[in-house]
Design a protein that fits this description.
Layout: H1 8-16, E1 30-36, E2 39-43, E3 49-50, E4 55-57, E5 61-65, E6 70-75, E7 80-84, E8 89-93, E9 96-101, E10 104-106, H2 116-137, E11 146-148, E12 155-158, E13 165-170, E14 173-178, E15 184-187, E16 195-204, E17 210-212, E18 218-222, H3 225-241, H4 245-254, H5 258-271, H6 279-288, H7 292-308
Parallel strand pairs: 11-18
Antiparallel strand pairs: 1-4, 1-6, 2-3, 2-5, 5-8, 6-7, 7-10, 8-9, 12-15, 13-14, 13-16, 16-17, 16-18
Helix pairs in contact: 3-4, 4-5, 5-6, 6-7
Length: about 300
C-alpha cells in the first residue's frame, strides 16, 4: 500500500471548524477519516449515529461499519493508522482500539504530529466552552400543536444541524432521532390510539447532553381510523374531480393536518413554480410548522417575483 502524509494545515483546518465545541473532555484518542458507505459511532449507549465527515473518537466510543463500508483511524500518539473494513465493530478502551468483530488492518503512515492534537485541544477548551454556551443560548426550536392519523403519521421540525440529534417525547414515550443532513427532520412514531397527547422535542448535542428544552408542551391529536379513512376518501374525491394538489393542501390545512398539507403545497409549486400569488399559502404552512428557514426562503422568492412582475 502506498504511504502518504496528511499535511498539518489540514488537521488545523479541521480543528478550527469542529462543532459543537469540545469542553470538559480529555483529548481525543483517534481521528476517523475517509468514511465510505455507512459508518456509525455511539458513546456509552446503543444510540448509533452516522458519521458523514471527519470525526474525533474519545474513550468509550464504539464504531461500526456496514456492508460495502470502510473508514480509517489515525492514532496520533503512536503515529499509526488503521483501516476498518466492512462489517467491522470496534470500541475505544483506555485510548486503545478493542476489536469486537470483523477486520482491522494497518493503514498508511499518517506522518508525525508531535502531539499536535493534544496541545491544541488543551488550549482551546476554555474558549470553546464559552462559545458553546453562547451558541446553545441562541438555539430555539418551534414546536406547535399537530394532528396525525394512521394515514398521515409524520411529525416534522426544523433541523438545527447534522451535529445535533433529538429526543421526541410523546407522553412517557421517548424516541432518539438523528438529525441528518436535511433542513427538516421527519419522523413517524409508533401508531397511537385515537386521542390527545402531549409532546415535546429536545435538542441533544453529539456528547449526549440536552442543550435545549421547550418551555411548554405542545398537543398531538391522533385521529381515529374512521376519521382518517373519511379524509382519505375526501382527498380521492378532490383528486378525481379536480386533479388539483393545491385544493387538497387547503383541505388538509383546514382540518389541522399541516404536514401532508405542506407536502401537497410543495407538490403544487413543483409543477407550478411561477404561481407567485399562491405562494403565501406555502409560507403560512411553514410558519405553522415552525420551519423558519424554509419560510424565509419562500418569502425571498415571493418578494423577488413581485419585483419582477
Amino acid at each position: 500500500m502506498k504511504k502518504y502524509c496528511i499535511p498539518l494545515f489540514m488537521i488545523s483546518l479541521f480543528f478550527s471548524n469542529i462543532l459543537p465545541v469540545l469542553a470538559d473532555l480529555k483529548p481525543p484518542a483517534f481521528l476517523l477519516i475517509k468514511a465510505e458507505g455507512t459508518v456509525e459511532y455511539c458513546k456509552d449507549t446503543n444510540n448509533w449515529k452516522r458519521i458523514r465527515r471527519n470525526k474525533f473518537l474519545f474513550d468509550n466510543y464504539s464504531v461500526r461499519t456496514h456492508q460495502n463500508s470502510s473508514c480509517q483511524l489515525i492514532d496520533e500518539k503512536n503515529q499509526k493508522s488503521y483501516v476498518m473494513q466492512e462489517n467491522t465493530h470496534i470500541q475505544i478502551s483506555d485510548n486503545r482500539i478493542l476489536p469486537l468483530k470483523g477486520k482491522l488492518s494497518d493503514g498508511p503512515q499518517p506522518g508525525h504530529f508531535e502531539n499536535y492534537w493534544e496541545k491544541k485541544f488543551t488550549k482551546v477548551q476554555e474558549y470553546t466552552a464559552a462559545l458553546r454556551t453562547k451558541m446553545n443560548q441562541n438555539l430555539t426550536l418551534i414546536i406547535n400543536d399537530i394532528v396525525l392519523s394512521n394515514k398521515f403519521p409524520e411529525i416534522v421540525w426544523e433541523n438545527k444541524g447534522s451535529e445535533y440529534s433529538y429526543q421526541l417525547h410523546i407522553n412517557d414515550e421517548i424516541y432518539q432521532i438523528d438529525g441528518g443532513e436535511d433542513s427538516i427532520v421527519r419522523f413517524i412514531p409508533k401508531q397511537l390510539p385515537a386521542g390527545k397527547y402531549s409532546y415535546q422535542v429536545f435538542v441533544v448535542d453529539e456528547f449526549g447532553d440536552v442543550i435545549y428544552r421547550p418551555q411548554k408542551k405542545s398537543s398531538l391529536v391522533w385521529l381515529s381510523e374512521k376519521e382518517s379513512q373519511q379524509i382519505v376518501n375526501r382527498i380521492h374525491d378532490i383528486d378525481t374531480t379536480l386533479n388539483n394538489s393545491f385544493i387538497i393542501a387547503n383541505y388538509l390545512e383546514d382540518i389541522g393536518l399541516t404536514v401532508p398539507a405542506m407536502d401537497y403545497y410543495n407538490r403544487y409549486f413543483a409543477k407550478n413554480p411561477y404561481e407567485n400569488e399562491m405562494r403565501p399559502y406555502l409560507i403560512n404552512i411553514y410558519r405553522k410548522l415552525g420551519l423558519k428557514t424554509l419560510r424565509n426562503e419562500e418569502c425571498k422568492k415571493y418578494k423577488q417575483n413581485i419585483q419582477k412582475d
